[in-house]
What we know:
The chain is α/β, with parallel strands linked by helices. 35% of the residues lie in helices and 20% in strands. The protein has helices spanning 6-11, 24-37, 53-60, 72-81, 102-108, 141-145, 155-168; strands at 13-18, 43-47, 64-67, 87-92, 114-119, 136-138, 172-177. The strands form two sheets. Strands 3-2-1-4-6 form a five-stranded mixed sheet, with helices on both faces. The longest helix has 14 residues, at 24-37.
Amino acid sequence: xxxxxxxxxxxxxxxxxxxxxxxxxxxxxxxxxxxxxxxxxxxxxxxxxxxxxxxxxxxxxxxxxxxxxxxxxxxxxxxxxxxxxxxxxxxxxxxxxxxxxxxxxxxxxxxxxxxxxxxxxxxxxxxxxxxxxxxxxxxxxxxxxxxxxxxxxxxxxxxxxxxxxxxxxxxxxxxxxxxxx
Length: 181
């Protein structure tokens, strides 16, 4: 097993900025914190298929934009598949990428079969209930596990089904408290 250091994670992660509501102001804030705190880290904005060409042009002034489907899971699936680094870090447009945020991830990340996620609510500490903001996923996991289901009615259902398949394949889920996203 490889134990990743803060620098190793930082050098092998692509930030997947989810922007389903086309929140340009929030996206600008997130992109700026990534550029300031992780200047060498690639980042890409994932937008839904409701994005118009002028939205893509506006986003393109800040970062690359990739159009996906209509659900959050389609944004994640498309983003991870198009990642050029070993790891994908999911962050919502409007959140700040703090310089110290990978410190806790580094403690728990042991190998590519670890799926790390942020716990921000003590009543939502299981993976299906937890926020998608702050998920750290390896690039190879969708090939092995399959895509998150595209359930437009419930992301919890999608995450539940997908996590069951992941556990069958030997993946570990690790919730991290205090990630400060």
